[in-house]
Amino acid sequence: MPKNRLRTHMFIAFTLTLLLVGFSVLLSPPLRDVRTLIGLPEHLPGARYNPDVGAADIISQDKEGAEFFLARVTFIYHSVFMLLLYATIIIFAELYLENESKNILMDISGFGALLGLSGGVIYSYVSRDFFWHGVFILGLAVLFVSGFIILMKFRPKGILEWNIWASAVLLMIGGVIGGWLGASFMEYRHSFLEALIESRFNPDLAEENIFWRALTSHEHAMIAVALTLIFLLAIAIVGLKEGKWSKRFLFLVLFGQVVMALASYSVWVVGKIAHLIITPSALVLIFSTLILSFKANNKGALTWGLRIGNIMVWLAVAVPGAIAAINLKKPILLNPNFRDPIWDWAELAFNIGHWHILLTTWGLILLLIYMYWPRTIDKHGPIFSWIAIIGYSIAVLAINLYAMGNPPGEYVPNPYDNIWLTYLVEPGLIIMSIGVGGAYILYLLRYLRLDS
User: Has residue 446 been placed in a domain?
Assistant: First the structure.
């Protein structure tokens, strides 16, 4: 490992995340000709793309394919999560740990992320040899060890650092639930997969299945806590304006994330009644982070990224999610009837689109931190940062128009030609990709010069 571990680990995290996301994009149905041109398979086992209708089915038509698809989604989303978590741990280590502990944490988390990534991708796309499944699990276990290092070495001082410590503890609890799910999978595989498939059509059908409840509680809490953690680390970097209100809202963040996460995890045991606690505590959390983003010191695109990211969580996730909940049984506010098979695409747009929004928000804040910390990467850095922010904003707002903005009536299942996707979502993603690509080139030019 070169002398400057921070630069090296940040470069590795940035590179691996870019490669994984780029690889996933190449496997999307609209790019079928491109991937075959470079030697990748035209059709993936378990793919939901149905050439007869030119769209993705709600689930793969054959049972074995459906199970393979669900497995591949699990591996790839975990791989993305692991890389983003690794990129986040690097920031924490540099901010709060001493040299020896810092280096150990960076190296272990990087090793775990690399194991998980390689095992997950190879098992999903190359070889279904159980060895690679084991490599994937080993990567998760190594990252879990990183959490123990944080809890042993981190001595929080002040409400901001106690918030960060709480995020670490809550992620560890979520990891335990995830571990239980993985350990139970082989013995209860059929029940688990049946519940997952049923939940694609109607989540109420899977409510009585303890594995489905554990899965939903695990994934919802983990992404919410991870977003809170990266927000808090960004606040630690830019700083807050002094004042009693800043401290009060930090206390509200602590309250919101702890209650929200514990209530989410309790879905595993008590079921959806826990939402009576989850929803108000989550609203306290995202309202508090929104206010704190406007109390952050102005550090250019990084601070504005925090503000815009918080606003987008409200506009593109919280408010549309509330509309979806109201429309769940029958259309009241807008036209989609989420439980009618004719409208299955609408709920998919919410479920899949919102997960992508949350993961992309996490990635965007990481990108902005990497461009400005520990020092500004390049004089052109702000240009590409703002390009990424603009593209992100267009795409995450527009995906909701795909779910709610189509005309009433039977849906023609050809989403790749949908007006909202063609003229808003995809251009937004292209703009964001230009910003991320330009930022990476600057990063490559700057951070490969380890002695400069």
Answer: yes
Domain end among 99, 123, 155:
155
For residue 67, the model assigns a pLDDT of: 72
- For 234-259, the pLDDT digits (tens) are 999 999 988 888 999 999 999 999 99
Domain finish residue from 108, 126, 155: 155
Helices and strands, counts by H and E, the chain: 16, 2
- Tell me: do 337 and 448 sit in the same domain: yes
The pLDDT assigned to 1 comes to 47
For a pLDDT cut of 70, what percent of the chain falls above it? 82
- Both tokens of 382, joined, read 């702000």
- Looking at the structure, do residues 60 and 193 belong to the same domain, yes or no? no
Q: Same structural domain for residues 200 and 268?
A: yes
- Residue 423 tokens read as 């003229």
CB 435 within 8 A of CB 384: yes
In a domain, residue 23? The reply is no
SS3 242: coil
Note whether 146 and 105 are within 8 A (CB): yes
User: What does the radius of gyration of the chain's CA atoms come to, in whole angstroms?
Assistant: 21
pLDDT at site 10: 94
pLDDT in tens, 271-305: 777 777 888 899 999 999 999 999 999 889 999 99
- Domain identity same for 333 and 284: no
| Pair 146, 185 in one domain | no
Domain range for 107 is 1-18+44-155
Mean pLDDT of all residues in 396-412: 69
Q: Please give the tally of structural domains in the chain.
A: 3
What is the average pLDDT value for the chain, to the nearest integer? 84
401 lies in some domain? yes
**Domain shared by 370 and 418, yes or no:** yes
Same domain for 5 and 134?
Answer: yes
pLDDT at 342 over 60: no
pLDDT at residue 415, rounded to an integer: 61
User: How does DSSP assign 385-438, residue by residue?
Assistant: HHHHHHHHHHHHHHHHHHHHSSPSS---S-GGG-HHIIIIIHHHHHHHHHHHHH
Q: Which residues contact 229 (CB under 8 A, 6 or more apart)?
A: 88, 164, 167, 168, 171
Q: By CB neighbour count within 10 A (0-12 exposed, 13-18 middle, 19+ buried), where does 58 fall?
A: middle
- Taking residue 175's Cβ as centre, other Cβ atoms within 10 Å add up to 17
Q: Is residue 169 part of a domain?
A: no
Q: What are the helix (H) ranges across 339-378?
A: 344-372
Q: How far apart are CA 44 and CA 56, in angstroms?
A: 13
Looking at the fold, whether 279 and 344 belong to one and the same domain comes out as: no
Pair of tokens at residue 272? 């959806």
pLDDT at 260: 94
